[in-house]
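hey m, so remember when u said the tokens were messed up on ur end? i reran from scratch. heres the input so u can diff it against urs
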Amino acid sequence: MIEIGTHPPPPPPTHHLPPPHLVALLNSLPPRPLSPRQPSSSPTLLEDLPSNEPWPPVPPDVESSALDLQLPELAVTGSSMIYRLKNHPTTVYKSRGTFREYQLQVAAGDCAIPVRGRVLSRLRNWDDRLVFYGFMMDLGTPICNVPVEERGGVMQQMISVMERLHAKGIVHGDVKLENMLLTSEGMVRFCDFGEGRYVDEDERVWEGNTMWDFESPNRLRRAEAVGREPARPVVEDDLYGLGLSIWQLYTGGVPHGETAWDDLGLKERQRRGETVDVGVVEDLEAREIIRGLLRGGGAWIGQEVGLGEEGLGCETLGTLGSSSAPIIPSSPKNPFIS
């Protein structure tokens, strides 16, 4: 039986690590030191842990061989796989979750799905090196098929948790509806911090990626201006992703429709500042919130329909919603609406 509990928060970092690399062949390949500029998509490296790490792991950290996984996997997210634990039905294991992602999710505190410990291993065949295999966290529920009368409350929670995350100095970097989960208490929390960064860190540290269909027009313009794709995410990019996520909440649609699968066509849409059709959202309050968030990311949006002729909106969005209560109908007053 493994012991799972709330992992203590890490001490304030003296520096931010470069993105770690994913486990692919596990013990069949030797771990190698991480290169600061090595592509983060490399599938063949294990991530070494400091030599002074205690062994065996101190709970709530566990040794990988102690996990009793329920097969098949619960979900696949990018290069990572999520497994249920047989003896802990409310806890999941993120295999190939990276150490940097783990650090950010812990640092996010009450904005993230709670982390319950690291999963470590000692490679006997490779000089007894200690490696990071992933981490455990609470099981969350996807936000989908939300009843109409509850959407306003979920939206307010999405806005609130986004504001609190930025107040902690963290940019998520991959904001979309599937990266928000409901806790057992009905609270909206973020997961999947693999593309995140600290607001104040050296921009050269970040080596993440992006989903183009959730990339803001301004982020694409920044990337093309400096010749580096993708550009590092900033707060306005998270807010643009939040706008698309709220649009998904109310419409159940896929941003950009079939164009989302056409890389060249999608980038042309983004260069022109085109985005989703906000006019299909029937709720007036939600529509105005979405419009403001998307404009902040560089989208061209008219006043009444999805695409208009008013040019790029960079208007101040005001104070985000501050509600942290469980799902309840939204207030008729909202700071996004003048």
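this time it looks ok to me. The domain at 141-296 is CATH 1.10.510.10 (Transferase(Phosphotransferase); domain 1). if urs says something different then somethings off w ur setup not the seq
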